[in-house]
Design brief:
By secondary structure, the protein is an alpha+beta fold. It folds into two domains: 30 residues, no CATH class; 81 residues, 2-Layer Sandwich (Translation Initiation Factor Eif1), CATH 3.30.780.10. The protein contains two helices and seven strands. The strands form two sheets. The protein has a five-stranded mixed sheet with strand order 5-6-4-3-7, with helices on one face. Strands 1-2 form a two-stranded antiparallel ribbon.
Length: 120
């Protein structure tokens, strides 16, 4: 038997996004907890504004959120609605279009999450 012969399988689906390598379900529906992110850092979410690599467009980025994928998806939806703009959730990092650092910090603190401004 070749090494790695049992590793094949679906990694990404256009219907549901990233897939768990163990249970073969979308990450939001993962039942085996293998694909869930481990506790990141000190548990304080870092909120920053970025422009680099985005064709000059400003994006508010939230990193180090220690939530399971279902809660993270719900938080992303809530923050996008609060800011009145679009955004995405990619590999545990929340990106909201536009400069909404203050609004995101207020929303995270109102929800009981520790958050601080990072960057310049």
């Amino acid at each position: 038997m070749k090494s790695g012969a049992n590793r094949g399988g679906l990694v990404y689906s256009t219907d549901s996004g990233r897939m768990c390598p163990e249970c073969r379900r979308p990450l939001a529906d993962c039942v085996c907890r293998v694909a869930r992110p481990a506790s990141a850092g000190d548990g304080v979410a870092k909120v920053m504004r970025e422009k680099k690599g985005r064709a000059g467009k400003t994006v508010t980025v939230v990193r180090n959120l220690v939530l399971d994928p279902v809660e993270l998806t719900a938080l992303a939806r809530e923050l996008k609605n609060a800011c009145g703009s679009g955004g995405t959730l990619r590999d545990g990092v929340l990106e909201i279009q536009g400069d909404h650092v203050d609004r995101v910090l207020q929303a995270l603190e109102a929800r009981g999450l520790k958050a601080k401004r990072a960057g310049g």
